[in-house]
Amino acid sequence: MFSIWFLLLVAGISCQDPSTDRAEWKEWRATVGKDRSYQNANDEEEHALAFEKSLILVKENKLAFEKGEVHYTLALNEFADRTDAELAVLRMDAESVKARKEYISNLKDSVDDDDSTVKDNKLRSSFDWRQYSKAKFPEIEDQGSCGSCYSFSSMFAMEAQLAIFNNITTSLSKQYVLDCTWYVDPKTLLNRGCSGGLDIVTYEWLHANGKGVPETSVYEYTGENRVRSCPATTSGPTYKVKSFRHANNSETLLQENLLRWGPITCGIHASKKFQLYYDGIYHEDNCDSADIDHSVVAIGYGSENGVDFWILRNSWGTNWGQGGYGKLMRGTNECGFPDTTAWPQVTF
Which residue, among 5, 20, 93, 77, has the nearest Cα to 319 in the 3D structure? Predict the structure, then answer.
């Protein structure tokens, strides 16, 4: 239904003032937003106004795409009616963003441009780990209304290692990360549950404590803060971080390390446009590259019509991008990407 609504939008969208006609809002409510509910008429009106802002962005994007000014399209997805406050919940809050900056400023890279194990690795012109993994990657997941992107990205990097190198398809518990890595770094107050965290801090804690992450099937995701609720033991198989590495904000290093080690977690600034992304190679001139507030996973790269791109896996469900995956312009440090990258080696 979502893809049908997008095609209808592209084919028939007009540029009239959205406040004079809410046909698009009614259509969205009947399709993509059919399961959305509001507290009262005032609450619905607030979300209708938020939708109108999204509608303007989508219309502007359509015109720019038709003129060949951009290489991507936006759509009125499930985030289209979200208010700024609701969208902010999906990202790290201001305190976590600040703590993240301080932490990274004091972080010494474990891999750099002089690392001989990386620089001798021959690069391919394009690559997608989905095509080379021994086992299928687990399904795209949705972090919901919780700023837990770091738990999803850090755990997917581990899941990908298991699929690629061990022929194991499994989903690791993101809630375990939220419950067990709360304020594990007392100096920076990272991680902070649904308020945000950092992949590297997650790997540090798992490695230092020798804790294994249980599977989602036995430790389900609730998307809520449960302070001091880390269990001493869990049932079923668990998977440990044998070691981990991280590197600086270098797209060249990311390309090399991705080929050598597998999918890698990366930071990015997630703007409203990014949240409405549908297809193509995303590029944004006005995003705040210094305000890194979201974590995704790079799984590959390539080029289309002379434009280089990264392939990203997100944690906003399958209605974002193409089934939860997207393409980001490569070679421009787009929206601060990749910021500080991290990846683990997994044992079990």
Answer: 77
Check if 149 is active-site.
Answer: yes
Helices (H), the chain: 2-12, 23-30, 41-66, 84-88, 94-105, 116-119, 149-166, 174-180, 199-209, 251-261, 272-275
> Catalytic residue among 47, 71, 283, 294, which?
294
Pick the CATH number of 2-87 from 1.10.10, 1.10.3470, 1.10.287, 2.60.120: 1.10.287
Decide if 248 is catalytic: no
Q: Which of 61, 71, 149, 246 is catalytic?
A: 149
**Can you name the CATH fold of 92-347?**
Cathepsin B; Chain A (3.90.70)
Q: Are the C-beta atoms of residues 277 and 334 closer than 8 Å to each other? A: no
3-state secondary structure of 242: strand
What does pLDDT average to in each consecutive run of 10 residues of the chain (348 residues)?
45 43 91 95 97 97 97 97 91 76 69 42 86 96 96 98 96 96 70 90 91 96 88 93 89 93 95 96 89 94 97 97 98 92 93
Res 187: pLDDT: 64
Which pLDDT does position 202 carry in this prediction?
Answer: 93
Predicted TM-score (pTM) of the model is 0.89
| CB-count exposure of residue 265 (10 Å: 0-12, 13-18, 19+) | buried
- To the query of whether residue 294 is one of the catalytic residues in this protein, the response is yes
| Boundaries of every domain in the chain | 2-87, 92-347
Give the CA distances from residue 226 to residues 204, 222, 229, 305, in Å, rounded to whole numbers and listed in that order.
20, 10, 6, 48
Catalytic residue selected from 61, 249, 257, 314? 314
